[in-house]
Amino acid sequence: MRQIALIVEDDPATSHVIASTLATAGIESLIADSAAAMWRKMSENPDVVILDLGLPDADGFELLRRLRQQSDVPVLIHSTRSEEIERIIGIEIGADDFLPKPCNMRELLARTRSLLRRAKGRPSQNGGRPGCCLRFGDWMLDPASRVLSDKQGLPVALGVSAFALLSAFLDSPFQPLSREILSRALKREYVPYDRIIDVHVSQIRRLLGAQPDGSSYIKTLRSQGYVFTSTVERSDATESV
Ligand code: CA
């Protein structure tokens, strides 16, 4: 299957190295050297976006925010802005992964491939299927369309990473899930002390809010990982909540 990466990067030497690296794995590249160029190339439906936050014509975070309003394409931030806070902001806004610059190109290739695997079967790619829904607390998740709805039935957007993690929790309620298991759910190699799982979990927690009894849906287990603490029911999509 043809896979296309959109490299948004204003340094031609860097975009060239990234494109050559991806080519070794058969991944084609489109290169955009500005935010304006990125918007033009988005019409070619890339499978993954590798985004430099420091572009001449846009603030990277603002650009990511706008991109997320229009697309659920996986985004890997590749940036010199590598402080922990920058990583957290990037993930909060909707990036799927974050690599500090300069990085090892093999690492960049591994992360890119993991995002491509994670995104396989996105509804925009398989058309979605009507199916059963998973209900928990005030929420309902339709795994086929990947739409999460609240008790008023209002849809909430989930990125590919948040969807993958929430699905892992809903598959195994009341079972402790280690960061290693959750990394696997993201089809990502486990890296000890990498906080990306924790950042994604806190993003999902904030999204879900409190359970009807006031407690959090996801509890932290000291040195073990996380546990989802609500019953999950499968039911027909057409039933009312
Ligand atoms: Ca730059």
UniProtKB/TrEMBL annotation:
Q: Locate the Response regulatory domain: which residues? A: 4-116
Q: What's one GO MF term for it? A: phosphorelay response regulator activity
Residue span, OmpR/PhoB-type domain: 131-230
Gene Ontology biological process terms from the UniProt entry: regulation of DNA-templated transcription
Superkingdom in the source lineage: Bacteria
Show the Pfam families listed in the entry.
Response_reg, Trans_reg_C
Cellular component GO terms held in the UniProt record: cytosol; protein-DNA complex
- Please name the Gene3D superfamilies in this protein's record: 3.40.50.2300, 6.10.250.690, Winged helix-like DNA-binding domain superfamily/Winged helix DNA-binding domain
Q: Which residues carry this modification: 4-aspartylphosphate?
A: D52
- Whereabouts does the entry annotate DNA binding, in residue ranges? 131-230
Entry keyword set? DNA-binding, Phosphoprotein, Transcription, Transcription regulation, Two-component regulatory system
Protein name, UniProt field: Response regulator transcription factor
